[in-house]
Every structure is written in structure tokens, then in C-alpha cells.
Design a protein that fits this description.
The chain is an alpha/beta fold. 45% of the residues lie in helices and 16% in strands. Helix 1 runs parallel beside helix 10, helix 3 packs parallel to helix 4 and helix 5 runs parallel beside helix 6. The radius of gyration is 21 Å and the shape is globular. The two termini are 18 Å apart.
């Protein structure tokens, strides 16, 4: 697993080098109109994130993006921030406000990929380029950065099968997918099914409204009631927040020692992995994703090419050939906590092993 952590570091370095290349190669390059490039570093960037229930957005994404934008613009750029709190209508209003405030570029992590399309078009009509962040928004977006979401689902499915071993032949699992309004959730589901189908029986499957842990908890209670607690051998959970709700339902039903997957490497998720309540999470290094979004946004605002930043292309339902940066992921288990989230400075061992978790950390040698 140490090699996997090195791969992350290499990916992050590649994004960083791409940023250096873009600045050096673009120089004073202007678009046909020349107006965007004339702004130089004195730009206004609108940053719209989807919700604040998942810890990552306020703790990692926002400060990392803001920091990189400041670095790229010699501290001259202004970042205007808004969080939609899982409300698609509110996010559309926030885009309107950003347009009124004449931002030079938008970074948007959509609450609802379809519902945001009209607002993306409004921005484009106002000559404001749009970077889709983490979720592939519909509409005429200019750039996109995220993780390979199908691979995320495959990683979760493969980990679950490994944990199940021979039990996969006899028992049933519950699949707790993310919100149906999130295109990433559909890709996670696709990847997971590509691994799980034919290898294990899926007793119940849910699309979890708004990714909320309480909804996952209710779904899990329904699955236990329908299938019987002795029939469930594992749970595919699309993220750590839902895994928390699922594990609470399992405990209440007296079900223990079955593998539950996750994603995002949230602190609570990592701590559940330490205690063995959760089997794994998908660690997605936020820094290279945030850096790529910042690099593309600044370049677009300044009228520069994305060629040296975005090496991939993706298609949305409405836009083909979108320049993209896709960041690799790692399966996080007890075996590689030190080599991933600790090594990358996401958490310290002291944070993970605080209070009641110290004994469990000692048991697995996390020091």
C-alpha cells in the first residue's frame, strides 16, 4: 500500500508541475479579444460549494482552493464564496448573485448537476467561464476536475469482496448509493456494480436522498427488517457520512463484525476504521483536486490556455470534450492510515487516536 501512497504524491506533483508549466508557457498570451488576459492577477473568482454536512468542503476544499488562487495571483485575486447547504434553488440564486457581482470566473460544485445547467448558461452568456468542481455539472462548462468516479466505485466494491471472502457466496449485501441528483453517485454505483454483480447477492439497494446519514440509517433499518439480520454479510456505503448512519442501525439491530465501505476519509470514518466498525474508505487527496480547480479558474479568467493543465477530456450529457484533470484514489484501511492521511497531513495520529480511540490505535500499531 506504500506504493499507492507514493502514486498519490506523484499525481499531486504532476498537477503542481502542470501549474508551473501553464504559468511559464502562457506568459502574456491573450485570447482573441485580449480583454481577459489584460486583467492579470487582479481577478475575482466565485466559489460555490454544495453543502456543509460533509466535513470535506469547509475543512479542505474551500481553504485549499483559496490558498492556491492566492498563490497563483500574488495575493491579488479576490475569492467570493457561497455554500448552497444542499439546496439547488439556493445555488442557482448564488450563481445569479455572482454574475451580478461580475466575477471573472466561477468554480461550481453542483448540488444538482441537471438543475445547475441554466445557471451555467447564464454565466457563459455573461462571458464568465465555469469550472465544474468534483461533480460534472451540465451546461456549457469550460473545465472539470474530480476523481475517476467509476474507479472509486470499483475500489469500494473490490475492497468489500476482499473483506467478505467466502461469505460472498452465501450471504447478501445492502447497497447504499448516494443521491440520485449527484452524477458522481451514479458513477460510483456503476463502478461498484461492475465488480459486485455476479459475485455477491444484492439483497436491497437504495439511492439515498441528499446523501444524509439519517436517511441512510432509515434505509438500513428497512433493509434489516426486510432481509433479516442474520442474512446480511456486508454493506456497500458510498461515503463515510452514510456509513456512520448505517453502522448505527447495524448496532441497534445487534449486527457486528460485517464490512462496511465508505469514501472521503472523514475523521470519524478513519476512527471507525481504526476500531474495526468500518472496513475501508476511499481516500481522495483533496490538494491536487483543489489545485487543479484553482489553476484552471485563474487561467480561464486571464484568457490563457488549459492545454498544459488539463490532460484529459470528459463528456457531460450536454457538453463534449471538456478539458479535465482526474485525480487518482486509494483504498484506505487499517493497514495504510500512516501512509495516506497521516503522511499527507490531513490528520495527525493524535487527532485520530484521541480519547477513546487510543486503545484501538495501540492495538493496530498506529503511533
Amino acid at each position: 500500500m506504500r506504493r499507492a501512497a507514493v502514486a498519490i504524491a506523484t499525481g499531486a506533483m504532476a498537477v503542481s508541475l502542470a501549474a508551473c508549466g501553464s504559468a511559464a508557457e502562457s506568459g502574456d498570451k491573450k485570447d482573441d479579444g485580449g480583454s481577459a488576459a489584460a486583467k492579470g492577477d487582479d481577478i475575482k473568482v466565485g466559489l460555490l460549494l454544495p453543502e456543509n454536512q460533509t466535513a470535506r468542503y469547509e475543512k479542505f476544499d474551500k481553504p485549499l482552493i483559496e490558498k492556491k488562487i492566492k498563490e497563483l495571483t500574488n495575493n491579488k485575486a479576490e475569492v467570493v464564496y457561497a455554500n448552497a447547504k444542499q439546496d439547488a434553488s439556493l445555488q442557482n440564486q448564488q450563481v445569479d448573485t455572482m454574475i451580478t457581482n461580475k466575477v471573472d470566473v466561477l468554480i461550481v460544485d453542483a448540488v444538482d448537476a441537471k438543475a445547475i445547467a441554466g445557471s451555467v448558461k447564464k454565466a457563459k452568456d455573461a462571458d464568465i467561464p465555469v469550472v465544474a468542481y468534483d461533480r460534472l455539472a451540465e451546461g456549457p462548462i469550460d473545465a472539470y476536475t474530480s476523481f475517476d468516479n467509476v474507479t472509486v466505485g470499483k475500489t469500494q466494491g473490490e475492497a468489500l469482496l476482499k473483506a467478505l471472502g467466502d461469505k460472498a457466496k452465501d450471504g447478501q449485501i445492502v447497497m447504499m448509493n448516494g443521491s440520485s441528483t449527484d452524477p458522481n453517485a451514479a458513477q460510483f454505483k456503476e463502478g461498484a456494480h461492475s465488480v459486485l454483480d455476479g459475485k455477491v447477492k444484492i439483497g436491497r439497494e437504495y439511492d439515498t436522498k441528499e446523501w444524509k446519514p439519517e436517511n441512510a440509517n432509515a434505509n438500513m433499518e428497512g433493509a434489516i427488517s426486510a432481509l433479516g439480520k442474520d442474512k446480511i454479510v456486508g454493506v456497500y456505503s458510498a461515503n463515510d457520512g452514510m456509513a456512520g448512519g448505517i453502522i448505527t442501525a447495524l448496532k441497534s439491530a445487534g449486527i457486528a463484525d460485517i464490512p462496511v465501505t465508505g469514501q472521503d476519509a472523514e475523521l470519524a470514518g478513519v476512527q471507525r476504521i481504526v476500531t474495526g466498525e468500518q472496513y475501508m474508505s476511499v481516500y481522495k487527496p483533496y490538494a491536487p483536486e483543489a489545485d487543479a480547480a484553482a489553476e484552471m479558474a485563474v487561467a480561464l479568467a486571464q484568457g490563457k490556455s488549459l492545454d498544459s493543465i488539463a490532460k484529459d477530456k470528459v463528456d457531460s450529457p450536454t457538453t463534449k470534450g471538456v478539458p479535465a484533470v482526474l485525480v487518482p484514489v486509494v483504498s484506505l484501511t487499517q493497514d495504510n492510515i500512516n501512509d495516506t492521511v497521516v503522511k499527507d497531513g490531513v490528520y495527525t495520529v493524535q487527532e485520530i487516536c484521541a480519547g477513546k480511540y487510543k486503545a484501538a490505535c495501540d492495538k493496530i500499531g498506529l503511533k
